Amino acid sequence: MADALRFRTDNAVDHPAVTVDAYLEQSNASAVRIEPGDDARDLLPHLGHIRLVEINFPAFGDGRGYSAARVLREAGYTGEIRAVGDVLVDQIAYLRRCGFDAFEPDQPLDPSDVKMALARWPDVYQSAADGRVPIWSQRHG
């Protein structure tokens, strides 16, 4: 795996994440890993105790992780949500909009490509988990 890219100022969790099932059985870990097919809503009662949620993307075309991040952010989770696995630079801006604030891709991402990807669309049209103000709201208050 490549080095993690974080958009947070707090300290990174330095221990491995446990699976959702393992967390629900013992619930004393502070890092959980969501795999495709896991239901992020199972973690909602425990969000106050979790510092890191890793969401695995085994293939770039599997979009279930976007929904998992959005569910967690809409439920008020403020901890780190990290995309891991087959994460491509083309996805970074969309993942950020859904609430991801850290990335640990299988292959390293070029920092200048990441910067360009995040700057490509300075205005947005819908509300999302990233809190950016939609352009229609800027125009019409």
What features would you describe in this structure?
The chain has 141 residues and is α/β, with parallel strands linked by helices. It has one domain: Rossmann fold, CATH 3.40.50. The chain contains 5 helices and 6 strands; from the N terminus they run E-E-H-E-E-H-E-H-E-H-H. The chain has a 6-stranded mixed sheet with strand order 1-6-5-4-3-2. Strand 2, helix 1 and strand 3 (31-34) form a beta-alpha-beta unit. It is globular, with a radius of gyration of 15 Å.
Question: Could you give the count of β-strands?
Answer: 6
Low-confidence stretches: none
Biggest sheet, strands in spatial order?
Answer: 1-6-5-4-3-2
* Intertermini distance: 44 Å
Major beta sheet summary: 6 strands, mixed
What is the class in the CATH system? Alpha Beta
What is the beta-strand fraction? 15-25%
Helix and strand succession? EEHEEHEHEHH
What's the structural domain tally?
1
Instruction: Please tell me the overall pLDDT.
Output: 91
Architecture per CATH nomenclature, i.e. the level-2 architecture: 3-Layer(aba) Sandwich
Overall spatial form: globular
Helix count equals 5
